[in-house]
Amino acid sequence: MRDTVDIQELVERRESYRSLEAPFYNSPDIFALDIEAIFGRNWIFVAVEPELPEPGDCVTVEVGGASILLLRGDDEEIRGFHNVCRHRGAKLVDEKSTTIGNIVCRYHGWTYNEDGELILAEHMGKDFDKSCHGLRPVHVRSVAGLVFICLAKEAPGDIEDLAKTMEPYLLPHDIRNCKVAFQSDLIEEGNWKLTLENNRECYHCEGNHPQLTVPLSEFGFGFSPDEVDERRSADVAKYAEDVKANHARWESCGLPSAEEEHLSNVTGFRTMRLPLMWEGESHTLDTKVASKKLLGDFTDAKLGGLSFWTHPNSWHHFMSDHVVTFSVLPLSADRTLVRTTWLVHKDAIEGQDYNLDNLTQVWTYTNQQDADLVRLAQLGTRQPAYRPGPYSQFTEPHVEAFCAWYIARLGDHFAKPNAQMAAE
Ligand code: 3BY
Ligand code: FES
Ligand code: FE
């Protein structure tokens, strides 16, 4: 990709309801901009609380070249810091997850407490001011057990709107009393935006996801009005009735189910709960629960699937028996990490209450299929013949919402280039 592209011009001339121009998926300069203006400024979903259940538990995550350390303190709060020693910069915690007391740098022993304060630095002399050498903090906000971080100096305040809307949907699934049953890291050979665009539509589901389409209802995919006539309009109407009846039943048990869409917020998000296929219970190949131990206080296995999508990097599915979360972390212009985490009730016993293969297979297959589609999409955007193509207003409105959000954030960045970057 030539480096002569004028990024600002590309941003200004983006046509709505069309895929982005090729440099957005290929240019190293635009990738660097994405890391700064999108991943450096917005709330990024990186972990779930059950990854660090006890005080002293620590996990590290890599966000666009920045290693971040998350640590649960004695007060049960999760704090986040840049994983870089303030002496000569050594990486502090090298493991993906561990349990620690204080944060001790292996190199020369500088030691930080759980607030990131430097409490020990030998041989620095009596005039050395430890208080100026604390770890650089990052913002952390857990929404019902989903951990978001923000690397900017000032984090977008509308995460509180997201939390207020989403907590009634999420809290009944009681993530904080779940355990991680399995986590997978899959590297997709494509730009992170292709991963997100692919996730924001189910146009590709019928033709590519034979396992996912067992529990997911095809009627949720979005048909144009003429297709509704062709495709058994009676079935489509019955599905709409089914959604209505289930929503009423779930709402009466204290489970909000109606669609909430706030995709043009800076911290953009959307949620809805839909019935699963054939009176289905969960995202499994027989559509029955994968774990006998239901989440929270649930006694009913038929709670459908609550989906939750956030800009710029996550989606989640909540069922009566398990939760699946997805965190998208860009690695380079054409490589992206998709981290998938399966959660079950913390008292569920593997082999007795659930079987790991049964729990994970729908999304293991689906992720692999999506990775392959993203790879093909990336290969296409590198071709000289590639031109931005049209989105379907029926099946791809949320792909458009994602791209419009992305372009708006870059627009904000050009309007106020340094306004929110982390202080040096
Ligand atoms: O269900 C999801 O998470 C999305 C929507 C359709 C494709 N993708 C698997
Ligand atoms: Fe950490 Fe020296 S680099 S103590
Ligand atoms: Fe898919």
Automatic annotation (TrEMBL):
This is Ring hydroxylating dioxygenase, alpha-subunit. InterPro entries: Rieske_2Fe-2S (IPR017941), Rieske_2Fe-2S_sf (IPR036922), Ring_hydroxy_dOase_asu_C_dom (IPR015879), Rng_hydr_dOase-A (IPR001663). Its cofactor is Fe cation. Keywords: 2Fe-2S, Dioxygenase, Iron, Iron-sulfur, Metal-binding, Oxidoreductase, Plasmid. It comes from the Bacteria. It comes from Celeribacter indicus. One of its GO terms (molecular function) is 2 iron, 2 sulfur cluster binding. Pfam families: Rieske (PF00355), Ring_hydroxyl_A (PF00848). PROSITE patterns: RIESKE. Residues 43-149 form the Rieske domain.
